[in-house]
Amino acid sequence: MLKSIDLFAGIGGIRLGFENAFGDELKTVFVSEWDEYAQKTYKANFHTDFEIAGDITKIKETDIPDFDICLAGFPCQAFSLAGQRKGFKDDYKGMSRGTLFFDVARICAEKKPKVIFCENVKGLTIHDKGRTFEIITETLKEIGYTPFEQILNSRNFGVPQNRERIYIVAFRNDIAPKEFIFPAKTDDTKRIRDIMEENPVPAKYYLSTCYMDTLIRHKERHAAKGHGFGYEIRDLDDVSGAIICGGMGRERNLIIDKRQTNLTPTTHIKGEINKDGIRKMTPREWARLQGFPDDYKFVLADVHLYKQFGNSVTVPVIQAIAEKIKEVLDKNGRD
User: Fold this and answer.
1) Could you tell me the strand order of the sheet in which 115-121 lies?
2) What is the DSSP code (8-state) at residue 144?
3) What are the residues whose beta carbons fall under 8 Å from the beta carbon of 93, sequence distance 6 or more?
4) pLDDT 10s digits, 155-213
5) How far apart (Å, rounded) are the C-alpha atoms in residues 283 and 293?
6) Cβ proximity of 145 and 170 under 8 Å
């Protein structure tokens, strides 16, 4: 039985991918997530016999149970601070407050797990002219790990979402392979219509005429300045753009769905519901874009769900990488 910890756990997307890959051979022994709403969704979908810990910066590494795999979709704020400090390479612990990645480092330096898995935005690789990413990889090496990294696109792993992310897999030096091959694409055939709700969705997801006018004016203003910002209606036979937690994550992934015939407003809107069938995707459709199963429970209002799935990871990508990690552990030993 391998043990894992789930840091910056969000709603459990990384954990879900690893559990899909390892099955009963993996047990989660510690979870940290500071956002109370994310905790509620997490608790509704995962049974834990311990409390979810809050702010990881306030938790001593010695208070965390021993574990074999560290899962960490760490936030990317404050990297500029780390990138400008010259003394970092000699004393990473002195920077532990600079960015949350260093909490991963201090915990793993103490506990020495077999594997550290991290996910982050693609731009991490070029942030501060590449210095940020170099600091991260050098830190992993300093604490005794061999890191491998690759950018993968979710659209190649069975979901119709164009989402590029950087994935870092670091093996403890004594079990590290000479080479780690990230997974090749498994399925790039899925399109938006494959993840649409089976039944007509409520009228509240359809945009009002006044809101459409606002979006059109917003796009025209940016177009006049030579920008490509603004709403976008996606072809159902295409893939979505990356879903993100901000409002434009929804407006840049609008679709046309004329199945709903009752367009009587159920919420307070200006104007009336548009007659062209333009709507935003539902939280369930966003969950499917991230590869979450349909039995994944929603216990919060839509506003929280959009944020949570926009901030989450694509489960099938995580699973594919985890299966490759499992191959290395099975070959190089789990002791």
Assistant:
1) 26-31, 2-7, 69-72, 115-121, 164-172, 145-153
2) T
3) 102, 106
4) 999 999 999 999 999 999 999 999 999 999 999 999 999 999 999 999 999 999 999 99
5) 12
6) yes
Identify whether 76 is a catalytic site residue.
yes
For the entire predicted model, the pTM comes to 0.90
pLDDT in the model for residue 92:
39
Residue 2's closest CA among 17, 24, 30, 20? 24
CATH code for the structural domain at 2-188+311-332: 3.40.50.150
pLDDT digits (tens, 9 = 90+) for 112-137: 999 999 998 887 787 777 788 888 89
Q: At what angle do helices 36-45 and 302-311 cross, to 10 degrees?
A: 80
Rg (CA), the chain: 21
What is the 3-class SS of the chain, one letter each residue?
Answer: CEEEEEECCCCCHHHHHHHHHHHHHEEEEEEECCCHHHHHHHHHHCCCCCCCECCHHHCCHHHCCCCCEEEECCCCCCHHHHHHCHHHHHCHHHHCCCCCHHHHHHHHHHHCCCEEEEEEEHHHHCHHHHHHHHHHHHHHHHCCEEEEEEEEEHHHECCCECCEEEEEEEEEHHHCCCCCCCCCCCECCCCHHHHCCCCCCCHHHECEHHHHHHHHHHHHHHHHCCCCCCCCECCCCCCECCCCCCCHHHHCCEEECCCCCCCCCCCCCCCCECCCCEECCCHHHHHHHCCCCCCCCCCCCHHHHHHHHHHCCCHHHHHHHHHHHHHHHHHHCCC
Buried/exposed 9-19: b ≥16 CB within 10 Å, e otherwise: bbbbbbbbbbb
As a whole number of angstroms, the longest Cα–Cα distance in the chain is 65
Q: Name the residue ranges covered by the structural domains of the chain.
A: 2-188+311-332, 198-281
C-alpha–C-alpha distance, residues 40 and 201, integer Å: 25
Catalytic pick from 76, 108, 118, 210? 76
